[in-house]
Input
Amino acid sequence: MAFVVTENCIKCKFTDCVDVCPVDCFHEGPNFLVIDPDECIDCTLCEPECPANAIFAEDELPSGQESFVQINADLSKLWPLITEVKKPAPDAEEWNGKPNKIDLLER
Ligand code: SF4
Ligand code: F3S
Output
């Protein structure tokens, strides 16, 4: 199993999650982060850190978020590692909680 970044990270990208991961699982795209499922050790530390509540255990994904398992697996192989917190998107708070952000995911 692994933890999964889901839709509400898109266009928020707060990056608090990166700070607590002991094994550097996070990879960064233009407006979203993903977790490498092959590196995640299920420590649970990142889940409560996300201000957007976007991180879930793979077996506790909210309904409709199942496609993010494959998205994390695929994009973590393409995107560079991120190991330090950076500033969120300037309008992150405005996007926090907006529905249907998956169409805005930049790859
Ligand atoms: Fe990293 Fe732990 Fe989160 Fe997995 S559960 S991504 S190991 S902080
Ligand atoms: Fe995204 Fe939450 Fe991390 S918004 S970058 S999963 S802290």
Observations:
- Residues 67-75 form the longest helix (9 residues).
- The chain has one domain: 3-85.
- Residues 3 and 57 are 4 Å apart (CA to CA).
